[in-house]
Amino acid sequence: MPAKRTTVRDLRRHNRSTLLSKLFFDGPLSRHELSQLTGLSAATVSNVTGELVEDRLIIEAGLVESDGGRPRVLLRVDPNFGNVIGIDVGETGVKVELFDLAMNRLAAVDHPEPDPLPDPTTVVAQITSGINEVLAAADVDSAKVLGVGIGLPGTVEQSSPAVVHAQTIGWEAVELEKLLRANGVTLPLFFDNGAKTLGQAEMWFGAGRGSRHAVIALIGSGVGAAVITDGTTYRGSTSSAGEWGHTTIVYNGRQCRCGSLGCLEAYVGAEGILDRYRKARGGKDIPGTDEQSQLDALAAAAVRSKTAARVLEDTAGYLGAGIANLINLFNPERIVLGGWAGLAISGRLLPAIRQAAQAHALRHPYGVASIELCQLGPDAVAVGAATLPVAALLEEGADPRVNTAAA
Ligand SMILES: [Zn+2]
Asked: If you average pLDDT over every residue of the chain, what do you get?
């Protein structure tokens, strides 16, 4: 193997990546501000931004006054350079969303999935038609799509082609990438676990912004987490790290969908909460047609019903104890609670969740951790999935010269 050297090409890619990322996250900015914020010389900023303008990745975005001198030109990433698609393969359906490069949502479609153990071929068909539907709805040519990111339940092995192990929905080593290719999808594809894509969305645009050490929790039908250490998602050896929902909260406790007993998910996942409520009501059905409406019914009933209030109180307790484990293990600055079920219940339960976390966590790490709600709402998994191709673009510096030379 040749020794690793920093070549001129590496340096150029690094500079492009640095400036493009700065403009993506903090633009519009003037060349002067770019130089100050990145530490790159005025000459380098001028050269590289000139190149990025030529490549149509960035555009001018008006002028800003400077002290005494000429007004400075502001630069930003061109939203029309290309599009990205983000897909949330959830346990209640497949959500497909189309964005421009400024992450403005241009179109979205939702395919509900009533089967709790969906067949991979059904999901592949939903993804494929969803991609075509959003492109048609926004009148975008597929040639403009830089990539499609897909957030999935379970472990997504970052192999090539990508393989999904989602025990709770009955997927064992599903070769999703191969299936999509066989179904005619030719766009560049990126795969990750849904909690991890939610994590990236909240770190980039939501409640995680500005923190280096955070845990973003996804509470839906299932429960997972993205553990961010020093700005990077912790993956472990095969990318399954963060399966917080399947950590044991009660020894020999409730049956979990994964086959084990006493997992956190069996208590604070939507199904677990609703099953505890049903049992507390002596087996009586909960009003509502799906998990989402039933959870809303539980939250509404808690105002007058002691049984419902008790179920939510216990949920806050289990969740707080689970969060205390995260605090003790990872020493995060921030814990962000998201996912559709998390959003439905955590708002009103937040004080009780914090209290339970405080009771179970060590004092010092608890004292430096804040517990907050996700800011991007129930679409955050899809938004995060759409950031996967954007991250690749920013990291590469999107240099057409380098890509052709490297091929
Ligand atoms: Zn489990």
From this structure: 93
Predicted pLDDT of residue 400: 64
Q: How far is the CA of 173 from the centre of ligand 1 (A)?
A: 18
What is the 245 CA–ligand 1 centroid distance (Å)? Answer: 6
- 160, 154, 105, 31 alpha-carbon torsion, rounded to 10°: -60
Task: Give the Å distance between the CA of 168 and the centre of ligand 1.
Answer: 8
Cβ 227 vs Cβ 146: under 8 Å: no
- C-alpha 62 – ligand 1 centre gap (Å): 53
Question: Cα(100) to centroid of ligand 1, in Å?
Answer: 37
Residue 402 pLDDT > 60:
no
What mean pLDDT do residues 130-142 have? Answer: 98
Digit-coded pLDDT (tens) for 222-257: 899 999 999 999 999 988 999 999 999 999 999 999
Half-sphere exposure of 258 (CA within 13 A, CB side): 23
CA gap 229, 211 in Å, rounded: 10
| C-alpha 262 – ligand 1 centre gap (Å) | 7
